[in-house]
Fold this sequence. Notes:
The chain is an alpha/beta fold. It has helices at about 15-25, 40-45, 65-75, 90-100, 110-170, and strands at about 10, 30-35, 50-55, 80-85, 105.
Amino acid sequence: xxxDSKAHILYVDDEEINLSAFKASFRRDFKIFTALSADxxxxxxxxNDIHVLISDQKMPGTPGIExxxxxxxxxxxQVRILLTAYSDFEILKRAVNNxxxxxxxxxxxxxxxxxxxIIEAYDLYLKNKNLRSSIAEVEQRKIFLEGEIQxxxxxxxxxxxxxxxFIDNG
Length: 170
């Protein structure tokens, strides 16, 4: 099975026209998923490996910042972007502090700037994934080496006991 090498992007917005525009602008460059609500987004998140989550802030029901906060808890390795037409400092502060967002982008978005932000976010995702993989590899090597050290310590202990017996009997 061939693995999809495109970034998997989920864009959440309660305005269907924005979802259509987003998909039309970026479908050639990324694998695009869209959702009209936080609840619909949660289903997509559970069923797909999403690399970058982009959410509008102002949505009925669950606002974007709450979706990003929930996503952080369940999918901590995703890169999160908050997209909104409103420049509310308190929302931005909460998004950064609680949702650990990568970027805050205002609507209407500039296609080129948003594409660059998505590329940078996906690059960050890949770097973090590689780092986690390297850390896991180092941990496995550490466990192996600790086992080898224990074996050597047992051999040394046995040799020491053998030498002591030889000296005592000698």
